[in-house]
Please model this.
Amino acid sequence: MSKKNTGQTRPLRLALAALFWVTVWQIVAMAVGQGILLASPVDTVARLVALAQTGGFWRSVLFTLGHILAGYGLAAALGVALATLASRYAPVADLLAPLLSAMRSVPVASFVIAALIWVPSRRLSLLIVAVIVLPVVYAGTLDGLRQIDPRLIEMARVFRMSRVNRLRCVALPALMPSLTSALSVSMGLAWKSGVAAEVIGIPGGSIGERLYKAKVYLATPDLFAWTLTIVLISAACTRLLRAGLGRMQAKLEKGKF
Model:
């Protein structure tokens, strides 16, 4: 089978795989026979549809979405900036190495509990997302910058290319693959860590608060419905991010950026 045919059939194969696991979920839920232990896909979707018709649902979604994207954007900008400095100055890389290693190793729960001492719960998810995403973006950006051929940089200087053209024609094309990978992976991490922070901090009006209340009141369909909401929004954010970065990379390759 050619690569073209494989690419055309992949969405169908993914859809069939998703259908398979949803069927397994439904069969297991029917076997358990206790909605309080395991909500079925039908119950989950029905509850999600019911929740989506309320204003509180969308307020919670927007609250969590705004805080997570703000933390993500802050971490992405800071990670790229620090990696740029570290690629040019070795002492900066050495200075940041222990800190970023610790940030990657310390459990999210530890960060959340410590952060609650310093910041209000409503800002907690923003801070935690930034802490979790920063090392990933930094590492991806630094790796990409180190892949740039020094000879290309030297040639650009010989031909007296402006800094803007050097960035556009030399640095960004080499950097984009690793940066795209880092940003895509860290989007999923942002949602996992951000919602986990909300569940612990319980800020009012957040998705994390809704999950916590669903657990307390044993409202399993609500728990599964909110979890499905998180999965769908996270997947949508990742897809939009990849699409935007893909267009940017395509323009760079064509020299239109």
User: Anything to note?
Assistant: The longest helix spans residues 163-201. The CA atoms of residues 176 and 249 lie 7 Å apart. The radius of gyration is 22 Å.
